[in-house]
Design goal:
Blueprint: H1 10-19, H2 23-32, H3 36-45, H4 53-59, H5 67-72, H6 74-92, H7 97-102, H8 106-119, H9 124-137, H10 142-148, H11 154-163, H12 167-176, H13 180-197, H14 201-215, H15 225-232
Length: 233
């Protein structure tokens, strides 16, 4: 079919190859014509080669000509591999990461953001969204994220941790926002629950004591340390 392009109009050959789902033929023709985004489209459509789309983008010397197609078809790239899609966009097209993210459904957003987080330097809103989605999809990660990071908005994340009842993360966020009494109340309630259920009393106690030490004189001893000592007596 490629030889036939010498006798037929090239556009006709491309249409024939596409109609027959001869995507390798289409790829060769698009490459010869410098149609890089159409070549990328052929890879996406070819079930035997679609996994190569991210390597193709990484190795391409014509990335600027691929940007619009990638953003407009980001769902198809996420369908291939959401994390790799996020890595690719944040690595080579970071200025359109937010635009690409906005068009995705929630579950796809999470995979895409996981990839973006691997690369780093995401905008505050994207980090915030990632932590919010972790509350739903990977709640075990949330406490370490809110403890170690400061590049997110506390208020929306606080709403999410409350929605999914992640009390330790909620206490950490309250502490970060300066509400030491609110944080103490949560951790103290957790300690009481651990005592009643014979849970991990040591860990719960350490959390409350660490908060008290961090708060210093910002906590009222009568409403914090005294009840704590009475609880542990």
């Amino acid at each position: 079919m490629i030889k036939a392009k010498d006798m037929l109009h090239e556009d006709s050959v491309v249409e024939m190859a596409r109609a027959a789902e001869f995507y390798k033929v289409c790829s060769v023709l698009h490459e010869e014509r410098g149609e890089h985004s159409l070549l990328l489209k052929c890879l996406l459509l070819d079930n035997t080669r679609k996994s190569r789309v991210f390597d193709f983008i990484a190795e391409s010397s014509h990335k600027a000509s691929l940007e619009h197609f990638i953003v407009q078809n980001i769902q198809h790239f996420v369908d291939v591999d959401g994390v790799k899609a996020g890595v690719t966009v944040q690595s080579y097209f970071p200025h359109v990461f937010t635009e690409a993210l906005s068009s995705l459904p929630e579950r796809a957003k999470f995979a895409f953001l996981q990839g973006g987080m691997k690369v780093g330097n995401l905008p505050t809103d994207s980090v915030t969204k990632y932590i919010q989605l972790c509350c739903q999809y990977e709640p075990d990660k949330v406490l370490s994220l809110v403890r170690s990071r400061n590049d997110f908005k506390i208020t929306p994340v606080l709403e999410s941790v409350r929605q999914y009842q992640l009390e330790e993360a909620e206490a950490m966020l309250l502490e970060k926002s300066g509400d030491f009494q609110g944080a103490f109340d949560i951790l103290f309630r957790r300690l009481q629950g651990a005592i009643q259920s014979s849970g991990n009393i040591e860990a719960a106690t350490e959390s409350v004591v660490a908060l008290g030490q961090a708060a210093g004189d910002k906590l009222n001893a009568q409403t914090t340390w005294l009840p704590l000592l009475q609880c542990l007596h």
